[in-house]
Design brief:
The chain is of the alpha+beta class. The strands form two sheets. The protein has a seven-stranded antiparallel β-sheet. Helix 4 runs antiparallel to helix 5 and helix 4 packs across helix 7. The chain starts with 6 loop residues before the first helix and ends in a 9-residue tail after the last helix.
Length: 272
């Protein structure tokens, strides 16, 4: 038979693709063409918060992250040298950072994430960029942050991102996410790390790690990972029904967010 000779077979294929793309929002059961196990894999492969994200080709946030990556290239060389020869390492900040990485390497799974979240939260004193640098929004690399011993939310997040990588976590399973705190009216940066398909939040405001679907009163704006800097599509049909139901205040504010707010670099609040 030709390609068009079996209409039922082609309709089944088309239906399968529809279920693949829209499975998280669909009402699926054992009678569908996709097994529960396959559906679970589809859900686990999504970005944090179950939203689509579009890669940015320009803008202030992309420029800021490119600057951070340039600094990280130099710091990773220094960290690698110190990691290979601790006795000759002349950077106290590098040795302190590597001690956190060592402790994380000795643990597995959730305990590894928790070790990094706890240790970095306790190692850095919260301080605004204005107080530390005289500027509103400065993103610092880990050794700069550990040298000063102070930083704000994105400085914690960048340090955790690098520590996770050095501790052996795949870059595919690490994201830096910029959120809008709708209660405080300010932006906030955190790291999310994926374990067994679940995204756990490493936040400088708390030692406990919670899943993305349990985050309350925050609207995800941008996500940074191995695919670059991306902006969340807030109207994505793939948005997790559980997340939407758990954060009504966020959902209400999505439609009212101006494009200029979403496209501009974050203005991290002084209280971070």
């Amino acid at each position: 038979m030709g390609y068009f000779g079996n209409g039922q077979a082609w309709r089944a294929i088309v239906l399968a693709w529809v279920l693949v793309w829209f499975g998280p929002a669909a009402n699926l059961n054992a009678g569908t063409l996709i097994s529960p196990g396959a559906l679970d894999s589809i859900r686990k492969s999504a970005e944090p918060f179950g939203l689509f994200a579009t890669r940015l080709s320009g803008g202030g946030l992309l420029e800021k992250w490119n600057g951070v990556e340039h600094k990280l290239e130099d710091e990773m060389v220094q960290l690698a040298l110190c990691d290979g020869d601790r006795e000759r390492c002349v950077s106290p900040a590098a040795l302190q950072f590597l001690a956190i990485v060592d402790a994380a390497r000795a643990r597995e799974g959730r305990a590894r994430f928790g070790e990094i979240n706890r240790a970095i939260n306790l190692a850095i004193k919260p301080m605004s960029d204005l107080a530390q640098y005289g500027q509103i929004d400065v993103w610092s690399s880990p050794l700069v942050t550990f040298t000063s011993g102070a930083g704000d939310c994105e400085d914690y997040a960048i340090a955790k991102m690098v520590a996770l990588r050095m501790a052996g976590v795949s870059t595919e399973d690490i994201r830096l996410v910029v959120l809008r705190d709708v209660l405080r009216g300010e932006d906030h940066a955190v790291v999310l790390a994926r374990l067994d398909g679940h995204w756990l939040t490493l936040d400088n405001r708390r030692l406990a790690m919670i899943e993305d679907i349990d985050v309350r009163n925050h609207r995800p704006l941008f996500v940074i990972g191995d695919s670059g800097v991306m902006r969340y599509d807030q109207q994505s049909p793939s948005a997790s029904a559980a997340w939407q139901a758990s954060a009504p205040a966020v959902a209400v504010n999505l439609a009212g967010a101006p494009i200029s707010e979403l496209a501009s670099p974050i203005d991290v609040a002084l209280s971070n």
